[in-house]
């Protein structure tokens, strides 16, 4: 039997599959198909994608993470996902500080003490951070980098910052709550269909400044749509917050980042040309589903979710946090 763990970071839900535990390996085409099958099932709980844990041949890493969005596309990074994979590997190998191989970088993971009863708290490195048009990529926009720029093609009143961490993000700080709804949906939808600006699509994040070191972020995710939270989106938005509003950010202190699924904290590191973010938040294992390995691709997967009880603890924790 194979185990599909049902996990989330800030209610950004995934199935997690350790392919090292399978008798027969699955290739990326099969994994992409499985991500779509799991996300589009009528009986399984909601998921935004599939996290694949594999072994790594990088000497410094204890494992590898691959991410498939719910539409089957591959994501170069996933912050909420890396926290969940980090917790999984920490428990599998009984370690608290280690590196995980991701598509473009080997990233640090640190396991903190639980932040509340039953709420695991994991810190992950988000890097590299790049602004060059080719890194996102973006085209047909007349900027060497997009940092707090007006882009009339996208909005008649908002300014934008765009960076790869290394998956692509477009960020805007809004004042009006209404911008978090239809304008975000419309721009996210437009830039994630074939378009002349972001040929590979882009994750679109709109944020509100709530106070010093305090923001709210809502994301329209590439390959998914509106999500409860996007870890790389909150990390990229924290970097943009520190760059565009230095008077509102003390980089020596964590930034509280609220999202529709809860709250994380970030630390922004701006060291000459080396920029990175530490993303700290929950990694909740809601439960697991068991399926025959041979049925993963060929048969409907039954919802035999065995719950851990951690979701109740997470919801109790969320009740205690205030904006
Ligand atoms: N939810 C993620 C990001 C997942 C990938 C994204 N949809 C993409 O295609 O870049 C996160 O927590 O960072």
TrEMBL record:
Positions of substrate binding: 12, 69, 79-80, 167, 203, 221-222, 231-232
Subcellular location: Cytoplasm
Transmembrane listed as a keyword: no
Primary localization: cytoplasm
Site (Could be important to modulate the pK values of the two catalytic cysteine residues): 169, 221
Recorded GO MF terms: diaminopimelate epimerase activity
Residue ranges the record marks as coiled coil: none
PROSITE patterns, per the entry: DAP_EPIMERASE
Keywords: Amino-acid biosynthesis, Cytoplasm, Isomerase, Lysine biosynthesis
Family: Belongs to the diaminopimelate epimerase family.
Protein purpose: Catalyzes the stereoinversion of LL-2,6-diaminopimelate (L,L-DAP) to meso-diaminopimelate (meso-DAP), a precursor of L-lysine and an essential component of the bacterial peptidoglycan.
NCBIfam families, A to Z: DapF
Protein name from the UniProt record: Diaminopimelate epimerase
